[in-house]
Amino acid sequence: MKLLLLNGPNLRLLGTREPDIYGTFTLADAERLAKETAEKFGVALDVFQSDIEGELVSAIGAARGVYDGIVINPAAYTHTSVALRDAIAASGLPVVEIHISNTHKRETFRQVSYTASVCIAQLQGFGLNGYALAVEGLINYLNMKK
Ligand code: DQA
């Protein structure tokens, strides 16, 4: 089994970016935790971050046949991107959407997700640990389907 972790715009700034909202962990910390969690289950996990919407769309488009599932934090594109939504739907892969913060406690424009309804699950508000929970949840989902 092989998974892909995608992180969207501005998440490379984790650690210094609005620490009161996102905490002080870095993108590397989140990627390491996701990889370690996957490894505990004997699963491989690749990571990719981009600030560019089209690069994320292309990564999802290339994932079919290579990965068994995707964990994605689409960041701000969650609230704007029909292209990401369509890429997820077209991939045919189980995708888990994750957010570090609980977007429902924030501005109203963050309370709409273009992507959640084409994902198998959405998980938010658990901070860094959300990356571990999302990976474990996706692995359980894939194992149940076998
Ligand atoms: C985020 C929430 C989004 O609203 C925001 O644009 C982000 C991060 C989160 O992980 O909490 O960049 O996806």
Describe the overall structure:
The chain is of the alpha/beta class and 146 residues long. It has a single domain, classed as Rossmann fold, CATH 3.40.50.9100. It has helices at 19-22, 27-40, 53-61, 82-91, 129-145; strands spanning 2-7, 44-49, 69-73, 95-99, 121-124. The chain has a five-stranded parallel β-sheet with strand order 2-1-3-4-5, sandwiched between helices. Helix 2 packs parallel to helix 5 and helix 3 runs parallel beside helix 4. The longest helix is centred in the last third of the chain and has 17 residues, at 129-145. 36% of the residues are buried. Residues 10, 73, 75-76, 78, 99-101, 103, 110 line the site of 1,3,4-trihydroxy-5-OXO-cyclohexanecarboxylic acid.
**Average of pLDDT:** 98
The count of β-strands is: 5
Helix percent band: 25-40%
Name the overall outline: globular
Determine the structural class based on helices, strands and strand pairing.
Answer: alpha/beta
Which architecture would the CATH scheme give at its second level? Answer: 3-Layer(aba) Sandwich
Q: Rg, please?
A: 14 Å
What is the total number of structural domains? 1
Residues in β-strands, percent? 15-25%
